[in-house]
Amino acid sequence: MTDARNHDLARRMAELARTAASPKTVEEVLSDVTATAKELIPGVDTAGVLLVGKNGKYESLAGITDLPHQLDDYQMKYDEGPCVQAAIDDVIVRTEDFRTEGRWPKYAPAAVELGVLSGLSVKLYTADRTAGALNLFAFKPHAFDAEDETTATVLAAHAAAAILASRQGEQLQSALSTRDRIGQAKGIIMERYDVDDVRAFEMLRRLSQDSNTRLADIAQRVIDTRSGNDSRDGG
User: Fold this and answer.
1) One short Pfam family name for this protein (predicted)?
2) Average pLDDT, whole number, for the chain?
3) Which residues contact 169 (CB under 8 A, 6 or more apart)?
4) Residues 7-32: pLDDT tens digits?
5) What are the angstrom distances between the C-alpha of 9 and each of 88, 104, 134, 147?
6) Could you tell me which residues come within 8 angstroms of residue 184 by beta carbon, excluding any fewer than 6 positions away?
7) Taking the mean position of all CA atoms in its chain, how far away is CA 48?
8) Domain-by-domain residue ranges, the chain?
9) Can you give the pLDDT at residue 168?
10) Which residues of 111-129 are buried (b: 16+ CB within 10 A; e: fewer)?
11) Closest to 75 in 3D by CA, of 103, 100, 41
12) Cβ atoms of 180 and 38 closer than 8 Å
């Protein structure tokens, strides 16, 4: 990479790191990443992020225009394409010219029909349950080179870090919510059956095992019965 381009990349990554530290949604962080890709990589006409879950569900995010979302729809429809391949299998997938591309016989003509002639997709290292790729597209052939791959790889790492941080936050919130529900349910059982904390939890655990139901769901049912009793008492 040239010195000027190295400097630009370092500057923009520092800016992205600062904005990621402020309260932002994953979509907003990824939008910053795709906008930065267009700013730093000369050949980029549009960009987006594709996430693919193990259940086959996919999310098309942070498109600079609507075009990346259309391309993602085609890839999931045909079950082929550079973004899917980068997300699930390869680390970097570069397409020089979709007009002569033989790897994706259904997707490539669809991309050409939309005016896209070349592309660069880079894997996002997210989580076991989800694969992802940062996807860059151009309206001319041979738009990307090895230098562009390096820049895109750095940006993809930032995008992946944002996704993982968000998921960890969601998991923490879920764990706290579960803990609160179990605590509330224990309090209801202690009051209703005049038992101590240990016995109340044991009753919840036994109900969970006997009914093959998650402990958090059993706790919610106990809370719901309390709410029902309260409404009847008030009526």
Assistant:
1) GAF_2
2) 83
3) none
4) 676 666 566 655 555 556 778 888 98
5) 27, 32, 16, 12
6) 219, 223
7) 12
8) 1-168, 171-228
9) 55
10) beeeebbbbbbbbbebeee
11) 103
12) no
Write out the CATH class of domain 1-168: alpha beta
- Range list of β-strands (E), the chain: 46-53, 58-61, 92-95, 118-127, 130-138
DSSP code at position 117:
-
Euclidean distance between CA atoms 121 and 104, whole angstroms: 14
Residue 163 near residue 52 (C-beta atoms within 8 A): no
Tokens representing residue 217 in the block? 């769901």
Helix (H) or strand (E) holding 98: none
More confident residue, 106 or 180: 106
Distance CA 25, CA 117 (A): 32
Q: Averaged over 94-114, what is the pLDDT?
A: 97
Assigned CATH for 171-228: 1.10.10.10
Q: Which helix (H) or strand (E) holds 163?
A: helix 146-193
Neighbours of 31 (CB within 10 A): 19
Contact between 136 and 120 (Cβ < 8 Å): yes
Task: Check pLDDT > 90 for residue 204.
Answer: no
DSSP state of 141: S
Q: Tokens 């790729």 identify what position?
A: 133
Residue 170 CA to residue 158 CA, distance in Å, equals 19
